[in-house]
Specification:
Elements lengths: L10 E6 L2 H10 L5 E3 L7 E5 L5 E6 L22
Parallel strand pairs: 1-4
Antiparallel strand pairs: 2-3, 3-4
């Protein structure tokens, strides 16, 4: 596959129950978000990146539930006294 044929990301959607915190975090990294709503869909934030890719933050639908990492099976490292 040549560089001209390589795949590229054009849309990334993040679902969160903490939309405002996510917007603030990514805004601090330089993204500029606009509030959007398409038809009867949920209000969300969208930022267009320099390469034309779109990054959106949507509210986490209640039926999706939260995704959490399983607890670590490794013991916590011990600090030296």
């Amino acid at each position: 596959m040549t560089a001209a044929e390589s795949a590229r990301l054009t849309l990334l959607v993040l679902y969160s129950d903490r939309m405002e915190e996510c917007r603030a975090f990514y805004s601090a990294l330089g993204l500029c978000f606009a509030r959007e709503q398409h038809g009867q869909g949920p209000q969300h934030y969208a930022a267009v990146l320099d390469d034309g890719s779109v990054f959106e933050i949507y509210p986490l639908p209640p039926e999706k539930g939260l995704v959490t990492a399983p607890p670590s099976t490794k013991p916590a490292p011990q600090r030296a006294p």
